[in-house]
Amino acid sequence: MAATANASSFHNVFVYGTLMADEVVRTILKRVPPASPAVLNDYHRFSIKGRVYPAILPVESKKVTGRVLLEITDQELDKLDSFEDVEYERRTVEISLLDKSEKLVANAYVWSDKSDPNLYGEWDFEEWKCLHKKDFVAMTLGFMDDMEQPDSKTRVATYDSYFHQGQSA
User: Fold this and answer.
1) 119 CB contacts (<8 Å, ≥6 apart)?
2) What whole-number distance in Å separates Cα of residue 44 and Cα of residue 41?
3) 84 is annotated as an active-site residue
4) Which DSSP letter does residue 99 get?
5) Is 19 exposed, middle or buried (0-12, 13-18, 19+ CB in 10 A)?
6) CA distance 139 to 10
7) Residue 106 and residue 80: Cα distance in Å, rounded?
8) CB 119 within 8 A of CB 57
9) Which of 17, 68, 96, 151 is deepest in the core (most CB within 10 A)?
């Protein structure tokens, strides 16, 4: 019988952007873990000039609606860290589950540059799904394939080459 991971080695990860799409999560983790709708209070989800994915930063009296991915293993958390790259830092936050009205501690990827002049407005998941999801999933697939190579590029470099190449074509 195979050994199972002990419950204490699982993580909760609050997602609020491209990782709300099952196709992106499946491309990175090779599965879609259990998830629940959740809210992160006192944060705002920004659009980023020149990017199709969002950033969150602490903003009093605002809230970000997203999902919490449950039962994430240490290895999967490492993959998510690589995917989020240096633009984000993983922080521990308290979220509220929408369907159970309970609070949970989770990891969230918060934008590293608090004074980034490229942050603006509010990022829209539905708009992203219509306009960018297909290309983003393709870019993510390329990144995950490349990660297995010894001279792999960072996710930011993969994004830049994929999306700037696509815009000039």
Assistant:
1) 46, 47, 48, 49, 55, 57, 111
2) 8
3) yes
4) T
5) buried
6) 27
7) 14
8) yes
9) 68
The DSSP string of 122-155 is ---HHHHHHHTHHHHHHHHHHHHHHHTSTTPPPH
Q: What tens digit of pLDDT does each residue of 43-79 get?
A: 999 999 999 999 999 999 999 999 999 999 999 999 9
12-38 residue pLDDT tens: 999 999 999 999 999 999 999 999 999
Rounded distance between C-alpha atoms, residue 100 and residue 112, angstroms = 31
Q: Which of 60, 71, 84, 102 is catalytic?
A: 84
pLDDT > 90 in the chain, percent: 75
Distance from the first to the final alpha carbon of the chain: 52
